[in-house]
Design brief:
Elements lengths: L13 H4 L27 E3 L6 E4 L4 E4 L12
Antiparallel strand pairs: 1-2, 2-3
Amino acid sequence: MGRPRGGGGPEVSGEAKLGISGRSAHPNPNRGAVMHCPYCGGEELWPDVETDYAWQCRECCRVFTVKLHGHIERGVA
C-alpha cells in the first residue's frame, strides 16, 4: 500500500521547505507528537487542518487523533 518507504525524492532547498506544512514546520502544543501511524505504521504524517489534535496518514489515507488526558499516579497497575 502507498509509496515505497525510503528516500528517492528530489532534493529540496531550505527556502522551498518553508512553504511546506508538516510535523516539524508547525509546532503545536495541542498536537501530540507521533512518529508512526497507529493503523499502518506509516511515517508520511501531516497535521490535519480540521482540528488541533488530528494527524493525516498519507500512506493509508486515515485521519486520527492523539491527545494526552493526564497522568496516573505511580504504583497504579
